[in-house]
Amino acid sequence: MTTPARPAPGAHAEELPLIPAARPIIGQEERDAVDAVLAGGMIAQGPQVKAFEEEFASLVAGRECVAVNSGTSALHLGLLAAGIGPGDEVVVPSFTFAATANSVALTGATPVFADIDEATFCLDPDAVAAAITPRTRAIMPVHLYGHPADMTRFAALAAEHGLLIAEDAAQAHAAQWQGQPVGSFGAVAAFSLYPTKNMTSAEGGMVTTAEAETARMVRLLRNQGMERQYANEVVGFNARMTDVHAAIGRVQLGKLAGWTRQRQENAAFLDANLTGVVTPPVAAGAVHVYHQYTIRVPEDRDRFVQAMREEHKVGSGVYYPIPNHRLESLAHFAPGLDLPVTEKAAREVVSLPVHPSLSQGDLERIVTAVNALAGAGA
C-alpha cells in the first residue's frame, strides 16, 4: 500500500490550491477545431455533426448515432422516437439526476420509481420486477457514476414482459457490461456531452439506436419535424447540435480512451489507500469509467464534505442529496413511496475528485484528507 504524502510542516489549508471535484479539459486542439468551423462559415448542423455521429458509433458497437443539443434532449427525443407517450409507464431509478424522470414526464408518460442496488447505485432488477404493471412500457436503467447497470437481468425482464429498454448512459461513455458497451443494449440510449462529463462538446447529447426508423424519427424531432426544409412531417423541436459543438466533441472523442485509463488509474490509487469509508465496488464483468468516484460516509456526511473543503482544500460533490421521488417537481408521481436503499445512499454518498487532470500530489492529498477525517469521525 502506498503511503500518502502529508502537507509540508507549517503548511496551512488556506495556502493550498483547491482540488476541484471536476475540471473540464479544453486544449488547443479543441480551440483550433472551433476556429476552423468559424472560418469555414458552416456553423449550424452540418458536416462536423455528421462526422461526429459517424465517429461516435465506435463507442456503441456501430449503432446509429444522432447528435442533439443536450443529454436531456437525447433522453426525451429517444423516448419519443421509441413510441413512449401518454398512458405508458417507464420504470426509472429515483437516485439519479432529475433529467431521467423529467424526460419520461415530458413525453406524457409516467415515471415509476424503483430502488437501487446498494453496491453499484444502479437500478435494482428485483425492484424493477416488482414495479412492473400492465401499463409498463419501458425500463430506463441509468449507468450511474460510470458503472454499468446489470443489463443481463434487464434484458431478461424486458424479454419476459415485452418491454423496451431505454439506457441513460449520460455518465458512462465507454463503460461496458460483460464485454458489450453501454449504449448498445436498449431500443434507444442517451449520452450527455456536458462540460463535466468524461468527454464534452461544450454542451450536447447523443442518441444511439439499432433501428434506422427510430434514428430517422430522432432526426425529425430534433429539427422541427423535417428532414427537408419546409417539408415538416411531425411536430418537432429545435434540438440541433451545431458544428462548433460537434468539432469540440470530435477532438474529445479522440482523447477519451486515454482519459478513461487515467480515471481508472486514479480510482485504483484511491481504492488502495482510502480507509474508514466505503469505496465503490465494481461488479463482475463490469468496466467502470469513473465519471464519479463515489464513497459512502455513514455518519455526518455533510460535515465531512465541509471539512474536506475548509480544512484540506479538497472539493467533492454530493450526487444526489434529494431523490427524485421526493423532489417537488416529481413527488406527485410517487405519493407515499418508500425506497430505503435510495434514501440511505442520498444520506451517505460523496463523490471525490477522480478526473484526469489530478496530479499524484493531488491524489495523495485527497487520501490524506479522507483518512484523517474518517479516522476522526469528521
Order of helices and strands: HHEHEHEHEHEEEEEHHEEHHEH
- Count up the domains: 2
Helix content: 25-40%
CATH architecture of the largest domain: 3-Layer(aba) Sandwich
Overall CATH class of the largest domain: Alpha Beta
The amount of beta strand, in percent, is 5-15%
Q: Which strands sit side by side, in order, in the main sheet?
A: 1-9-8-5-4-2-3
According to DSSP, the number of beta strands is: 12
Total of DSSP H or I helical runs spanning 4+ residues: 11
Describe this protein with a few key phrases.
single chain, 378 residues, Aspartate Aminotransferase, domain 1, Aspartate Aminotransferase, domain 2, seven-stranded mixed sheet, 13% strand
Structure description:
The chain has 378 residues and is of the alpha/beta class. It has 2 domains: 13-19 and 255-376, Aspartate Aminotransferase, domain 1 (Alpha-Beta Complex); 28-250, Type I PLP-dependent aspartate aminotransferase-like (Major domain) (Aspartate Aminotransferase, domain 2), CATH 3.40.640. Helices cover 37% and strands 13% of the residues. The chain contains 11 helices and 12 strands. The strands form 3 sheets. Strands 1-9-8-5-4-2-3 form a 7-stranded mixed beta sheet, with helices on both faces. A 3-stranded antiparallel beta sheet has the order 7-6-10, with no helix packed on it. Strands 11-12 form a two-stranded antiparallel sheet. β2 (89-93), α4 and β3 form a beta-alpha-beta unit. α3 packs parallel to α4 (99-106) and α3 (71-81) packs across α7 (212-222). Mean pLDDT is 95; it is low at 1-10.
